[in-house]
Design goal:
The protein is α+β, with helices and mostly antiparallel strands and 143 residues long. The protein is built from four helices and eleven strands.
Length: 143
């Protein structure tokens, strides 16, 4: 116990230096320049809702946790674009920064539906409520 107390009360440790090592979040003011490397479902897909959240498109239904999110890596500006993909279909979505947050919309005519035990809604509505994790080059993450 004495050893820990000495470390905690060590005046040679600079709080400013320790805090300077933190990764601090920044507010979204516009699209970050960079390449979208990966798109991930939020953790709730893999935990609480894994069995009850399904995606439906073109008469084919799949558990959301087993669908892929494939980034479009051909642009460093404009909307973030990605496909929501199962073995049977792929539908393009995009995310833009509006009023300090990411807003999602389907980029095609027909949208994927989120099917839950007692409800159904367009995937873009679900994404706007829950978000995704966007991983960009240079270790940048947006969510």
């Amino acid at each position: 116990m004495r050893f820990c107390r000495r470390k905690l009360l060590d005046d040679t440790i600079s709080i400013d230096k320790v805090i300077g090592q933190f990764i601090l979040p920044e507010g979204l003011t516009g699209r970050t320049n960079g390449i979208l490397l990966a798109v991930e479902w939020p953790w709730l897909i893999h935990t609480m809702q894994a069995d009850s959240l399904r995606l439906s498109y073109a008469a084919s239904v799949h558990e959301a946790a087993y669908t892929d999110l494939i980034p479009k890596t051909d642009s460093t500006s404009g909307p973030f674009r990605f496909d929501v993909q199962s073995g049977a279909w792929a539908v393009t979505y995009e995310a833009t920064v509006e009023k300090g947050r990411l807003r999602y919309r389907c980029a095609t005519d027909e949208e994927v539906k989120v099917i839950r035990p007692r409800s159904e809604q367009p995937l873009s509505d679900w994404l706007n409520e829950n978000g995704l994790i966007l991983i960009l080059d240079e270790d940048r993450i947006r969510g």
